[in-house]
Amino acid sequence: MHHSQINSEIRKLIADGTVLPAHPLALTAERQLDKKHQRALTRYYIEAGSGGLAVGVHTTQFAIRDVGLYRPVLELAAETAANWTKRPLALVAGIAGPTRQATAEARTARDIGYHAGLLSLAAMKRASEDEIIAHCAAVAAEIPLVGFYLQPAVGGVVLSSRFWQRFASIDNVIAIKIAPFNRYRTLDVLRGVAAAGALDRVALYTGNDDHILLDLMLPFDLRDNGVTTRTYFKGGLLGHWSVWTASAIKQFERCKAARHKDSVPADLLALDARVTDCNSAFFDVANDFHGCIAGCHEVLRRQGLMQGLWCLDPNEGLSPGQKDEIERVYREHSDLSDDAFVAANLDKWLA
Fold it and tell me: What share of the chain is helix, strand, coil (3-state, %, to 5)?
């Protein structure tokens, strides 16, 4: 499947930039798929105004592959979305593993109806950049690709600007989620895409949960032989946006409106730090992100969108002190939550 085969409205949606929440996994106390709450989560993201969904990604838990849930979870999200709304939605499937596994997952996602694959390179840690590029090209032969620069703290691989130039030169790459949580490495990706002459084809999506709003509103000037090219992040594909999503979409729209202006409101700039403060609690920064998935689950549990915090790995949960931190940011940044929106619609989503 080539990106030219994607529905034109959805292709434009991805290219122009949108909100793509990373979809969590709702489980029962027995750590089985909780279809009722999984559907409710999908409906929540759609009614909050998301432009699409990212399913089978880190926030969904990579371990779904080990327990036979990869296809069922992707199918459930796609079916729920199709039955809940007729507006265009970009469906992005997480793709992981060595080349044989990754190409098989790409075919599965494509056959279900996903439009692109978010390619994790965590399985390629010991590979050379040449080998990784060959891996990416093989997967791109099956489905349009969204690159994924995952931070090393949760399994990512450090990659050079030259790598990102070569990656962006693959014709079926349509976007890159830039999520190293590192300004220097973020700039490496931008410089690489610019050097490939691919800024018009490859949409830049922030996954930097520590710097969401600044990434979305500020210009980036890239210099080559005295020539300046100005570019912007177009959208976000974020685990942080799996919670308080209705509020996040309002923030996204404010950031879009602030682009290309000579000045940015100070209050909007200051909001970036408040969002980052919330992320520090949800993503468990104090404990090197050990509780990042469970932290998002805790917010959704409080709202009734999940029954509990359970992860597929019984050893994965909130870190010591993390619940207190979540309660702190709830108190200090309550205006950033969307609790009232969820409360008003929860019964409908759970029906």
Answer: 50, 15, 35
Tell me the pLDDT tens digit for each residue of 38-83. Answer: 999 999 999 999 999 999 999 999 999 999 999 999 999 999 999 9
Q: Are the beta carbons of 116 and 93 closer than 8 angstroms?
A: yes
Cα 217 to Cα 111: distance, rounded to the nearest angstrom: 36
* Residues 275-319: tens digit of each pLDDT: 999 999 999 999 999 999 999 999 999 999 999 999 999 999 999
- Token reading at 160: 């050079």
Give the C-alpha separation, 324 to 328, whole Å: 6
pTM reported for the whole predicted model:
0.95
**Spatial contact of 322 and 291, defined as CB atoms under 8 Å apart:** yes
Please identify which residue in the block is written with the tokens 């609690």.
281
Beta strands in 161-269, from DSSP E residues, in sequence order: 173-179, 203-206, 220-224, 227-231, 235-238
